[in-house]
From TrEMBL:
Protein family membership: Belongs to the FemABX family.
InterPro entries named in the record: Acyl_CoA_acyltransferase, FEMABX, PG_Glycine_Bridge_Synth
Gene Ontology process terms (BP): cell wall organization; peptidoglycan biosynthetic process; regulation of cell shape
Protein name: Peptidoglycan bridge formation protein FemAB
One Pfam family in the UniProt entry: FemAB
Organism: Streptomyces caeruleatus
Keywords attached to this entry: Acyltransferase, Cell shape, Cell wall biogenesis/degradation, Peptidoglycan synthesis, Transferase
Cross-referenced PROSITE patterns: FEMABX
Single annotated GO MF: aminoacyltransferase activity
Amino acid sequence: MTRPPLRVQLLTRDQHLAFVAARPSASHMQMPSWGEVKPDWTPESLGWFDEEGRPAGAGLVLMRPLPKLRKYLAYLPEGPLIDWHAPDLAERWLAPMLAYLKGRGAFSVKMGPPVVVRRWSSEAVKAAIADPAARRLRDAEPTSRDQRALDIAEGLRRAGWRQAEPGSEEGFAAGQPRYVCQVPFAGRSLDDVQRGLNQQWRRNIKKADKAGVKVVRGGYEDLPVFYDLYVETAERDRFIPRPLPYFQRMWDALTAEHPDRMRLYLAHHDGDTLAAATMLTVGTHVWYSYGASTGRRREVQPNNAMQWRMMTDAHELGASVYDFRGITDTLEESNHLLGLLRFKVGAGGEAVEYLGEWDFPLNRLLHKALDLYMARR
């Protein structure tokens, strides 16, 4: 028996937060507060309701207008929060969302299903890096594979969704990363997590402690200190930094929603701040969000000390996973991002591949124009 499509309508902020609170976790990009971080987008909280009027799903959609036209790109980063394994996913869940967004003037919809396809243990990643035949992570045999995720991808294609092409940076999507590194915490003691660190990590943490590195939590007033280090990091690692007001908005919006949603950590040594990082928490999922460090006194290993403090605090919060966010899919030594992959995997992290981002063109002409514009950028 075919079930009727769910009803999609706006949620209040309280309804959205209540829905997320009833789940183990959700992406921070699917929280109402994330819409306040993005002033160029108009945020809306969408709800899916069943026949009895009970909420069955939720999603934060960000609407961005095309210049001079009342047409919008609708984006659900790392969402929506729906039953992705439902047998009637396209008809019951996604079709009413597309109809609602088309009625709101959307010409194209982009979403990032929070569905894991494959995982590689830290040992499997290390072996892949050492294997000259493995040029990409996807060439290496995964530790686990979820056939249901592949079935979802096939169902999306049949329904007219298109998998978004990766961005120019190898392994990173144009929107959110498809490949991430996560340290599993569920069911593990802190001692067990520590035993998962590789020898280099353990040695560096001891070296930082012996050198007198102190890691402290900061506040809003410390964001300019973090920002100075972040700009230095951007110059060194060749990326364009976000402006300081972005992080100030992020702090205001996220901590107003929950006082522990966002934290700032700073690593000090002899009165100098050598590294800083932001940490985000929703439910049992904790993310290392933005990191920054100086080239000064790297020998005292402030980054390892700071990350270990953040991992320790995340474990104390009851986290089931500590998420290092994006990693490269490229395993070639010439890639400047390979060192970052080694650093994250060295903490006992496993490589995780998500379904990636998917587009549905509601107006093919405008969608094509957007593709051309993004390609030129």
